[in-house]
Write a structure and sequence with these properties.
This protein is an all-alpha fold and 415 residues long. It has 21 helices and no strands. The chain has helices at 23-46, 53-63, 67-78, 84-97, 101-110, 117-131, 135-148, 153-165, 169-182, 188-199, 203-216, 224-237, 241-249, 256-268, 272-285, 290-301, 307-319, 324-337, 340-369, 374-386, 390-412. Helix 6 runs antiparallel to helix 7, helix 6 packs parallel to helix 8 and helix 7 (135-148) runs antiparallel to helix 8. The protein is elongated and about 80 Å long. Mean pLDDT is 84; it is low at 1-49.
Length: 415
Amino acid sequence: MSIATQVHTAPLARQRRSWNVRPKWAAAAVVSLVLVAVAVWWQTKAVPNSLPAEFSKAWELLEEGRIDAAEKLLDALMRQQQHGNAYLVLDAALSVAHKDFEGAESRIQAANLKGALRPYALEVLGKSFFGRQRWYDAERVFRTLANEIPRSFTAHLWLGMVYDDLHMFGQAIHELMLAAEIQPTDYRPHILHGSILNRYGRYQKAAEQYQQALRLMPPDAASNITSITYFVNCLVRDGQFDVGLEKIAAVSDPSVELRVLRAECFLGLGQLAEAAHECRTVLEHDENQQAAVIMLAKVGMQQTATSEHAQLLEAALARNSNDSEVMFLLAQVHGRLGNQQRQQELLTQSQRLVKLQIRSRELLEDIWSQAENVDARLKLADICDELGESKQAKQWRQAAAGCQQRIKALQGNAP
């Protein structure tokens, strides 16, 4: 199957020669030709466009992650020999769910994909390429789907995900806005949109996206508490402490992250006793909870720094020696306690880390304005290594490799 071209039906080969027949024979011949044409149309158009009832149900189960139930329907479909192509597409989708991407692609290639099956096949193929980090191929497939079905929610949502993985954030947001417009009741475009804005420090706009997602999300959704946490974090970063407390109060069993954010809201509102109590409650259950340690030290800095704060922060710094926030707070604590030598050591180290963080923000802005800036991605990966953020470093290198792959592919396709 070629994803670069529209599906078409090859015309029937004909041989032209002179005819010299009686009128009634000619009429019979015309009727025969019409019947043949109808039969050809039926075979090339009607059959590929008809999907068995089991297909839609099995596809829905796969979308919900109910793989075992989908497999049972697939077995039933396998026994219906007239639906072989539909079976291959569903089997490919199951292979993607099991991360057998090569198996999925071989099944798609083996199928005769026309009519109603084609969008499903393109979706499976695009997801398979995405899973194998073949971002340009995934982009090409989903772009084909978007061209053939301009109002395809799936195409634009997955294009947004492809561009997000490439860290082409402007393009990702454009596709996610299209997806949200096409299917305004789906929360997923808003979640990813909010995540991108959050990473760039655009907290007010990010909070708006998370709020919209929470309006659309079922209350029992697995990602609900995570989305609430991101939402409240954006509110706090934007200085909306009252609203943050209100949102946390609506959660029946707040997570550790939400409790620390509640402490930060109390601190922002000047309610130091409440903030300290919240942090100590968290640390009673987990004395190594880094965020609670930092918050408790921040509260202490508003009152009187003690040796307890110094001990807590020294332990936190031992767990992550590149945490500039811990380092700076610890320097302040030692300064108040009169330990000038230790304070100076920490400030020197902290200044180096702060410079790296400032450079990171500058590179992020470069990438926002120059979507295919490979060098900026590689420099960010190096900075993440220096900051001890190995996971982020790996993601930036993957994004750089994906952009380079995309640039070469586009250059190779240039006229």
